Amino acid sequence: MIAFYSDFYFRQDHDQIFQNFIREFPMFDYVVQVRRIKDRFNFIRGLRMTGWDLCNLWLMRNVRISFRKKLSLIRVLGLTALYYKRMGAYLHTKAYAYGLVYGDSNPYENILVQYMKRKGIYTGTLQHGLFDKRAYWRGLEYRTSVADDFLAWSEYIKDLAMECGMSEQKIKVLGIPRYIRPIKVKKEEKNHIFGVILGNREYDEENKRLIGFANRLAGDQGLKYRLRYHPNCKGDEYDREVKEQFLVQAAKQKEEISEMCNACDFMLIGSGTSVIIDLIYLQQPFMQYTMHQDERKSKKRNNYFHNYEELERLIQERDALYNKEMFRYYCGTRDVKKSYAEYFKKMMADF
Description:
The protein contains twelve helices and twelve strands. The protein has 351 residues and is α/β, with parallel strands linked by helices. The strands form two sheets. The protein has a six-stranded parallel beta sheet with strand order 2-1-3-4-5-6. A six-stranded parallel beta sheet has the order 9-8-7-10-11-12, with helices on both faces. The N and C termini lie close together (10 Å). 32% of the residues are buried.
């Protein structure tokens, strides 16, 4: 068995999640990226890639997108071909029967999965984030998956994937890889601080409204808040929106979610991040803002708010918002290692 984590969407936290996860299963060989500040120039490789780029430009001559977008796409295709060639070499070192990738919705791992399937290798992909059919990416992770098995976090994810057209047989509900080692939040007393967790840059308007709610709530109830930016943000995009007198400090992006939960009594969060799943796993009270009222019909949860009055009501009820059925539906299991170990054992037996 062999596993891959590519650097197309490289994030330090995802890299660490993958390595912590895969090291728990000694039956795997695995390949991770070594990040170098500079790459050595190779003239022959440069010529080959230039020829590849020109061929792709010619093939896209009738595609109706801007020239700038064509150049961006050509760059991705060139790097994907380079990754495929380098990673493909590992697959010839042994007779592998099973191949796992971190997320086959990105081009590098998608093309590698296709190559493994052509070689007769059974494939699986971990779930690397939360994608909703109604959200910005329109269920991208599910719609572009090509692996034989999609290893989902929970029944909630299974339902989302099936809404996007993924077959039920392909989905294996196994738990959240981030929690291959169980984590709990320990709180000794009220902090009178809440957390605000922003979505990525595509959720700009939602992020601004969320900070507006936080400013008003802090002023009305004599609280302060910690602000956590999405890893895809620089970390200063919303400085103008924040009222400094209410800000304790901006949460560091490298800070674990569990550490932020320890410091905060509850959280405000939008829809542009998968952290909602972490908060349910950690049994952290949270209220989720949504700009779309139909989203509040979500199964097993009643902690959505659309305006400030609804937020105030949820704050009063926050200790009653969590239940075991919510955990089961959104998080699956706490014994993540056992769940994946049984799946991998069955795969090995089938081989």
